[in-house]
Amino acid sequence: MSVQTWTFLIVGLSFALYLYIAFRSRASSTSEFYVSGSTVHPINNGLATAADWMSAASFISMAGIISFMGRDGGVYLMGWTGGYVLLALLLAPYLRKFGKYTVPNFVGDRYYSQGARLVAVICAILISFVYVAGQMRGVGIVFSRFLEVPIEWGVIIGTVIVLIYAVLGGMKGITYTQVAQYCVLIFAYMVPAIFIAFMMTGNPIPQLGFGGELREGGYLLDKLDGLNTALGFAAYTAGQRPVIDVAAITLALMVGTAGLPHIIVRFYTVPSVQAARSSAGWALLFIALLYTTAPAIAAFARTNLLATVADQPYSSMPAWFKNWEKTGLVKWTDRNADGRIQYYNEASRDPAFQARAATAGWKGNELAIDRDIIVLANPEIARLPNWVVGLVAAGALAAALSTAAGLLLVISTAFAHDFMKCCVRPQITERGELRCARVAAGVAVVIAAYFGINPPGFVAEVVAFAFGLAAASFFPVILLGIFSKRMNREGAIAGMVTGLVFTAAYIVWFKFVHPERNNAAHWWFGLSPEGVGSLGMILNFTVSLVVSRFTPPPPADVQELVENIRVPRELRQP
Q1: Between vectors from CA 46 to CA 168 and to CA 156, what angle results, nearest 5°?
Q2: How far is CA 7 from CA 13, 385, 390, 397, in A?
Q3: CA triplet 84, 376, 151: central angle to 5 degrees?
Q4: Among 255, 349, 350, 541, which is disulfide-ready with 471 (CB 3.0 to 4.6 Å)?
């Protein structure tokens, strides 16, 4: 069967499974809609958390970034992995013990302020919208290639599907759908990695093949360094980003993880604090399977890609290349009319390479490849069976849609529960609140679809912006809310507003207002828009602590609540 036939078959069967699960486990109360009635088993919650966590950025874009950026792309790997550990160990158990459905609910009650709650609602909605835009973009890329439709239609198709099972099932439906989606996505990620590792190195374990010898001799990374430098790129294992920016991006991704509302809410779906700790451990194991494999996939794909296209006749390009050309995500322009594909770094300052390019008659780089296609095209580049290509498409959609559903739930919950019920209409009935949540999810998915069609960057870059906003707004207020009895509402509000406004303004300035200045020569303190969340977080902490010291302390009952979250009354020293 053809690639398209296999894709229709595997994706169709997986979607039918997701919709069946959503229908069978649809929510009938606000408790089930928001936190699945707090009855999910820790292993199931670990699977669902892993699926929620491993979005299109993890499945589609992370290996693509590493493939194109080499060592510099590792900041995403380090930041996201370290962030989950930070969340699981430092924050999740305490938040679960506090017993509130959402982060805005925690902020509102901990800081005894509707104003603080409202600011947290705005932060949650903004972060989730930025994050979900990346997921919709990933969905559009998959459908665009394998259904042979424009990206715009791909986003619309994915929007309709996620709307059905997110709005119908709520957290209860999403949880059990995400268990199935994790199984699909991890199988789809590992199968081609195992195949390609064995084909290239003779070792079926991708993590070992990554550092191993190739069948034709020599080590994989040595060959990749040679291929890169021969084309004027930096060595694959060398880093080009400023050290301060690498550190800032890693930190922003780590602490941003700990402030992501759609991950935090997962720890409320289990029945106890102990179950929350257990599910965090299971989730870390399930996440590690993909994250330790991503660098190997990146290296395999980069090696095969360069060997296939660099300085090769366009007429000899395989079907995958021309199919991706139809989507607009691969573009070739024959600048010197020689019928060959010159793919190289035209900005290289190496005199020897410049002389080589001049002698060969090259007139500029002729190939543009969207880095978000690398994982999806990888099986075709390696000439794996067509069913593997269809499987990867199903896995990519599972990753994107699972996270999109979780984010839409955060948006609908923040609006219906934290804004409408807690701030605007406290007397609203449970049925009215549930209806409001579903309407909010519907509106949110339409807006998310727009940003999926018109994204501000590639998938992982957009997601990194969301992490930066979370780092600058939520992380300080949550951490101080748990560990500082002196932290008050004035400090929390001032810190969240300062961190969010500064970080959002910096991103907008360099990505939209002056994109031509988005380089190290113009960044403040050498920090890119992806890493500026670290500076926003520092500003948040500083403003929060200073303002709280010059304003009245929290009431005694709030200070007692904070003490009891960390140390139960019966365990305190007399």
Answers
A1: 35
A2: 10, 12, 4, 11
A3: 100
A4: 255
DSSP SS3 for 191: helix
Compute how many other C-beta atoms are within 10 angstroms of the C-beta atom of residue 126: 17
Which of 251, 217, 155, 116 has the alpha carbon at shortest distance from 448?
Answer: 155
Q: Which positions ≥6 away from 460 have C-beta within 8 Å?
A: 57, 61, 62, 64, 65, 76, 134, 372
Q: Parallel, antiparallel, or unpaired: how do β-strands 312-313 and 330-332 relate?
A: unpaired
3, 386 contact by CB (below 8 A): yes
- Phi then psi for residue 311, to 5 deg, are 55, 35
Reported as a pLDDT band with limits 50, 70 and 90, residue 569 is very low
For residue 312, the SS3 value is: strand
- Element of type H or E holding 271: none
Contact residues for 330 (Cβ-Cβ < 8 A; gap 6+) = 321, 324, 367, 368, 369, 370, 373
Question: Which residues make Cβ contacts (< 8 Å) with residue 480, sequence separation at least 6?
Answer: 487, 491, 492, 541, 544, 545
SS3 529: coil
For the CA atoms of the chain, what is the radius of gyration? 24
d(CA 233, CA 344): 7
Inform me whether the pLDDT recorded for 312 exceeds 50: yes
Give 313-361 as a DSSP string: EGGG--HHHHHHHHHTSEEE--TTSSSEE--S-TT---HHHHHHHHHHT
CB-based contact 144:376 (threshold 8 Å): no
pLDDT digits (tens, 9 = 90+) for 319-348: 888 888 887 888 899 888 888 998 888 888
Which element (helix H / strand E) includes 287?
Answer: helix 273-291
Q: Round to whole Å and give the CA distance between 459 and 51.
A: 17
**Residue 219 β-bridge partners:** 213
Q: What is the 3-state secondary structure (H, E, C) of 445-499?
A: HHHHHHHHHCCCCCHHHHHHHHHHHHHHHHHHHHHHHHHCCCCCHHHHHHHHHHH
Q: Is the overall model pTM greater than 0.85, yes or no? A: no
Instruction: Work out the average pLDDT over 420-444.
Output: 76
The rounded distance, in Å, linking the Cα atoms of 210 and 427 is 59
Q: How many CB atoms lie within 10 A of CB 202?
A: 12
What CA–CA distances, in Å, run from 11 to 142, 158, 394? 11, 12, 5
Question: Which residue stretches of 362-385 are H helix?
Answer: 374-381
Q: How far is CA 554 from CA 291, 495, 497, 564, in A?
A: 42, 16, 19, 15
The candidate with the shortest Cα–Cα distance to 170, out of 19, 26, 17, 15, is 26
- Could you tell me if 433 and 420 are in contact, meaning their C-beta atoms sit under 8 angstroms apart? yes
